[in-house]
C-alpha cells in the first residue's frame, strides 16, 4: 500500500488503530473549556466524534494516515520585509489541498478495494480536514511525526510541511509505531509567534493566532493584534517556518502544490482594487476564496495600515464607503496609520453620520487619542 500511496503523490503512509489516542477526549474537553477555540463553535458541536474515531464511525478497525509534502521553496517569513506585498500562508498559494488530497485518497481507497477482493463486508471512508477527525494526534500515533510545541505535526523528513488525510477502513491491518517527541528544550516556534498565541508549550490559544484571526474569525480584529499582523492577509506560517527540523524539509514534489506565481508576493494595491467578482475570479480554486471578499478586505486594510504607505490612500478612502462595517472599521484604522492628523480630523468630520457602533468607536479612538500619523 505504501508504494501505491507514493505513486499517488503521498510522501508518508502509516497505519494506526482507532483507539490509539485514548487521552484525546479529556485533552479536547479541557481545551474547549478554556474558550481557546474562539468562534469555532463547530469544534464543540463535534467534540465527541472528533475525540474518538469510533464515535465518528463505529465499524472502523484501522486508519491509514497519509501525508503529502507541500514544502515551500523559500522561507515565507522573508515577505515580512516587503510591506507593500501581501503574505498568504504557504498552504493557500496553490490549488485547494482539500480537493487534491481527497481525490488521491479516493484513488487509494479504490485500489485497496481491488487488492482486498473477497474481504467480507469491506468498507472504507476518506477524510481531509473538514470532517471531525483529529488528524494530528492520529498521525503522531501512526508515526508520521510528532505534535510539536506549536501543536502542529513535525516530521523528521519533511519538517512542518505535511498535508494530512485519513482513510478509515474495516480491514484489520497491522499498526505502525508512534513517533517520539523530538522537540527537546527548543522553543523556536513559541518565540516566533507575533501575537504570543502559545500560553505554554503544546497549548494554542486560537483567539490570539493570526491564522485564526485572518481566516476563521468573522468579526472585527482587536486593536492589540493589528500591528503584529503586519502584511499577513491570509494565515501565518511563522511558528511552522521557525522549526529547526525544517532543515530536512523538501520542496513539494506534487505539481499541483507548486505555488502560483501571483500568490507568492501579491501587490496589496492590486488586491485591494478587486471587487467581489474580481476577488472570486482571482482566487478561484484557492482556499482564500472561502473567507469572502469583505473579510479579505478587512485583512488587506490592516496590512495597508501597517505599511504606512501613502500610495494606498485611494484604497483607504474608497473603503470608508464600503457596505460592510468590518471593512469600514479597518479603513478608519488604516487612515490613522497612513494619513496626517489634519486629514484624519477632516475625514472624521465628513463621516460624523456613521451609524455602526464598531465603526464609530474606531473614529472615536482615532481623533481624541491622537492616533493619526504625524
Could you please describe the fold and organization of this structure?
The protein is α+β, with helices and mostly antiparallel strands and 374 residues long. It folds into two domains: 2-266, no CATH class; 275-374. Helix content is 41%, strand content 9%. It has helices spanning 2-7, 24-33, 41-45, 47-51, 53-56, 97-115, 135-142, 188-192, 210-216, 223-229, 238-241, 261-264, 268-272, 276-282, 292-307, 313-319, 325-338, 341-350, 357-366, and strands spanning 12-16, 62-69, 87-88, 124-127, 146-147, 153-154, 162-169, 232-234. The strands form three sheets. The chain has a four-stranded antiparallel sheet with strand order 1-2-7-4, sandwiched between helices. A two-stranded parallel sheet has the order 3-8. α15 packs parallel to α17 (325-338) and α17 (325-338) packs parallel to α19 (357-366). The mean pLDDT is 95.
Proportion in helices? 40-55%
Give the DSSP E fraction (strand runs of 2 or more residues): 5-15%
Average pLDDT level = 95
Q: Widest sheet: strand order?
A: 1-2-7-4
Q: How much is the radius of gyration in Å?
A: 23 Å
Order of helices and strands: HEHHHHEEHEHEEEHHHEHHHHHHHHH
- Biggest pleated-sheet summary: 4 strands, antiparallel
Feature tags:
19 helices; 374 residues; two-stranded parallel sheet; 4-stranded antiparallel sheet; alpha+beta; 2 domains
Please write out the topology.
Blueprint: H1 2-7, E1 12-16, H2 24-33, H3 41-45, H4 47-51, H5 53-56, E2 62-69, E3 87-88, H6 97-115, E4 124-127, H7 135-142, E5 146-147, E6 153-154, E7 162-169, H8 188-192, H9 210-216, H10 223-229, E8 232-234, H11 238-241, H12 261-264, H13 268-272, H14 276-282, H15 292-307, H16 313-319, H17 325-338, H18 341-350, H19 357-366
Parallel strand pairs: 3-8
Antiparallel strand pairs: 1-2, 2-7, 4-7, 5-6
Helix pairs in contact: 15-17, 16-17, 17-19
